[in-house]
Backbone:
């Protein structure tokens, strides 16, 4: 029998090298694994979206301007802008050499196309109504005088134009390439300018984003959704894991690197683990107790005030948030640059005064129903503590636990006596008051129906002068505390757990992760 | 046989229609709607109205129902409100995940529970019986989510033998897929062993008392043959009914186990859709579950003659 000739040594060596190279390449991809508590809704920014969608898409697309760490507005795809025509025309100078994920260079033409697409009702952009007659201002004209300049003309001046463009839930008014949609105008996938590209969306399982090699980063340090975006991993996988115990187990076993939005009990448990590091940042959300001021019983401000005086906000926050958040009775979040000394004056517990007010109001233990939910454990815990503290002055609160969708329905219809509620983040102080105040007849969800406050709010939206706006917010705060349409308790905290191998992660005021500048070691 | 099949299938149509009406009405009776969940605390009424009109939710409910039924008749389950996916492929996709786990787990459980129940009945009131009944009761009493979490802790975190989270379809990688479903199957098997053992034992005790068993023994038939030939087939019929019920019930989704083990199954789809008030998906899932129930029961009925010649299905 003939034996086959052995392969020459060099061929074996080459094969081995090739194999090594392949292995090396396969092993070289750095992957960062994180968690979503529910699948994203779509990849179309600011349309069919929720917080999870915003969080993923925020890595893939960018807008002209973006929020900085302190919620002020900074340039993103625009390099600079000027405001003229009595505050009605914004002229943006675009950054040079910005690349889309398909390699095309961004020009003013793309910006105009993107903006016009957002303003087309068929796009179903979430923030379209902001630019309609009932919104902050109408956009009258979008022009591109040259390939690096875009001019937008509004029908009236507004302080909210740039903050609205930058809103993450508006998809940051992303500038996208027209290849993002098909010939029929239907959405395909985002061809954006972000530091990551969308790679794969396995519905119900995970969303993968990969590093965009053609990304040209800004030079300022990372801040909010702008500044330098230096990507240090090849791929980020957002695993869809609804159950938080499973996510925690995943982190501890090493199959997840980062889990966001931890609950307080999780935090206590993870604190002691050597392989885990924690990131705790103040958040912008607002947790509090809402009162229906049209309710036959609660329309009496003395009763609402008595409830406010019966509770010790600091004690509630300490017990509910375990030291991760501070008490705050103001509608403005603690991190806001408009949070002044005036905003820090809230309610101080005063049992005697509360009892006196109740006696004056003729309150004799009538039950007050308070809707709460267990979707947000801090909301439920807060309602239990408020109930207990109010009991000490003889106020009889009955809790009614609902699922979140059912509670939202009651909230939107104003159909409640009181409810423990959590508002999502608002990035501008005018928007913080806007979510609370308005005419109940037209907008039953609004908790504070005070025409003077509404007028002040309207002014705060029109003027751009910081000192004047500050004065308005301080005055609104005083009236808000006097009217007691609700009791703000705290702004909460964004709690993130990471394996020790993750370097460079930083939370910020807005409850969304940023995986640029983050490395896996 | 075929005539019987046709009759049975025809009988399911009014059942399914009733289910469809009930599901459609019930889903809309829950307070809250998908638009509010989507818009959250910032639901501008104009925006909400616009979205409702787009989704067709502004039309009268009977009109919405007729739309849905008309499409259903053409095999179109509609599209998810939250992610715009076609509902039927979504359900089938998720169903595969649940079905593999349920079928394997119930199969395994039956293979263990039926012999165990038979032996316990045979040795009634002995130590063996006591331990089988005790074990079954224990397994029956353990909540499945707790058992699942314990298994996760032991095999996932302490021993690190199996992955803790995720799912890989069999089509992608058989070995990996298996590692992800071992624990859910083990959990479900243990729980179902408890249910089935008790049934198998009770049925076997009944049969052991009957005259033909005494007769067989008097004839001098060896004891193993008495059990295998005379007791087991007769005692299996009621157990088989129970297996059918269990299968029909579980195939509708094992939401708790799917949640603990992060499996993209039908149960989780349903629960998530309910929280999101995703009407088309909730309706689709419930209707699909009803169909599964009917089909499983039909199959169970068709199987009776296999082990009980007295039963005919003509």
Residues:
């Amino acid at each position: 029998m003939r034996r086959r000739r052995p392969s020459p040594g060099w061929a074996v060596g080459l094969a081995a090298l090739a194999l090594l190279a392949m292995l090396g390449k396969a092993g070289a991809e750095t992957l960062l694994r994180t968690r979503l508590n529910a699948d994203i809704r779509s990849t179309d920014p600011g349309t069919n979206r929720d917080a999870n969608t915003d969080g993923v898409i925020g890595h893939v697309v960018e807008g002209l301007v973006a929020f900085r760490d302190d919620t002020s507005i900074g340039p993103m795809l625009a390099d600079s802008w000027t405001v003229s025509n009595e505050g009605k025309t914004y002229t943006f100078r675009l950054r040079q050499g910005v690349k889309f994920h398909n390699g095309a260079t961004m020009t003013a033409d793309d910006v105009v196309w993107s903006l016009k697409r957002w303003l087309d009702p068929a796009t179903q952009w979430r923030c379209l109504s902001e630019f309609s007659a009932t919104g902050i201002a109408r956009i009258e004209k979008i022009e591109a005088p040259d390939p690096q300049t875009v001019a937008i003309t509004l029908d009236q001046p507004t302080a909210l134009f740039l903050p609205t463009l930058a809103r993450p839930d508006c998809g940051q008014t992303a500038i996208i390439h027209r290849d993002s949609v098909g010939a029929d105008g239907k959405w395909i996938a985002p061809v954006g300018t972000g530091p990551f590209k969308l790679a794969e969306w396995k519905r119900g399982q995970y969303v993968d984003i990969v590093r965009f090699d053609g990304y040209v980063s800004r030079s300022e340090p990372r801040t909010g959704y702008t500044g330098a975006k230096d990507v240090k991993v090849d791929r980020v996988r957002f695993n869809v894991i609804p159950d938080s115990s499973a996510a925690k187990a995943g982190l501890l076993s090493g199959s997840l690197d980062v889990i966001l939005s931890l609950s307080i009990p999780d935090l206590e448990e993870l604190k002691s683990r050597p392989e885990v590091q924690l990131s705790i940042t103040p958040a912008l959300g607002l947790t509090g107790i809402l009162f229906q001021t049209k309710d036959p019983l609660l329309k009496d401000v003395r009763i609402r005030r008595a409830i406010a005086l019966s509770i010790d906000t600091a004690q509630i926050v300490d017990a509910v948030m375990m030291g991760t958040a501070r008490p705050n009775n103001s509608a403005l979040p603690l991190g806001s640059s408009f949070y002044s000394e005036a905003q820090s004056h809230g309610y101080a517990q005063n049992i005697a005064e509360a009892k006196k007010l109740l006696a004056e109001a003729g309150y004799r233990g009538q039950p007050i129903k308070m809707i709460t939910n267990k979707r947000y454990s801090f909301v439920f815990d807060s309602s239990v503590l408020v109930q207990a503290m109010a009991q000490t002055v003889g106020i009889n609160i009955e809790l009614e636990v609902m699922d979140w969708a059912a509670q939202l329905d009651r909230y939107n219809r104003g159909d409640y006596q009181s409810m423990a509620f959590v508002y999502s983040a608002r990035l501008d102080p005018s928007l913080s008051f806007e979510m609370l105040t308005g005419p109940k007849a037209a907008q039953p969800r609004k908790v504070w129906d005070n025409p003077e406050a509404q007028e002040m709010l309207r002014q705060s939206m029109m003027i751009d002068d910081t000192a004047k706006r500050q004065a308005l917010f301080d005055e609104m705060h005083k009236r808000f505390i006097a009217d007691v349409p609700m009791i703000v308790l705290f702004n909460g905290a964004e709690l993130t757990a990471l394996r020790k191998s993750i370097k460079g992660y930083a939370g910020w005021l807005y409850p969304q992760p940023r995986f640029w500048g983050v490395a896996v070691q | 046989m075929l005539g019987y099949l046709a009759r049975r299938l025809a009988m399911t149509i009014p059942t399914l229609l009733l289910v469809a009406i009930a599901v459609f009405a019930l889903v809309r009776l829950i307070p809250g709607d998908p638009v509010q969940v989507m818009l959250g605390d910032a639901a501008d009424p104009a925006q909400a109205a616009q979205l409702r009109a787009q989704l067709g939710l502004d039309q009268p409910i009977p009109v919405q129902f007729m739309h849905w039924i008309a499409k259903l008749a053409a095999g179109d389950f509609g599209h998810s409100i939250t992610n715009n996916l076609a509902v039927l492929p979504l359900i089938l996709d998720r169903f595969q995940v649940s079905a593999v786990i349920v079928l394997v787990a119930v199969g395994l459980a039956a293979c263990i529970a039926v012999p165990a129940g038979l032996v316990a009945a045979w040795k009634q009131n002995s130590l063996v019986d006591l331990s089988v009944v005790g074990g079954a009761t224990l397994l029956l009493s353990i909540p499945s989510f707790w058992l699942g979490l314990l298994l996760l802790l032991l095999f996932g975190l302490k021993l690190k033998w199996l992955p803790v989270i995720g799912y890989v379809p069999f089509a992608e990688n058989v070995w990996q897929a298996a590692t992800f479903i071992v624990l859910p199957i083990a959990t479900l098997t243990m729980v179902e062993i408890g249910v089935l053992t008790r049934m198998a034992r009770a049925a076997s005790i009944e049969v052991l008392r009957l005259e033909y068993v005494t007769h067989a023994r008097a004839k001098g038939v060896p004891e193993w043959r008495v059990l295998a030939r005379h007791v087991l087939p007769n005692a299996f019929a009621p157990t088989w009914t129970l297996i059918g019920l269990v299968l029909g019930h579980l195939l509708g989704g094992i939401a708790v186990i799917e949640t603990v083990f992060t499996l993209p199954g039908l149960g989780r789809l349903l629960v998530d859709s309910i929280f999101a008030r995703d009407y088309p998906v909730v309706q689709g899932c419930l209707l699909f579950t009803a169909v599964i129930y009917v089909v499983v029961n039909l199959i169970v009925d068709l199987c009776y003659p296999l082990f009980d010649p007295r039963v005919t299905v003509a």
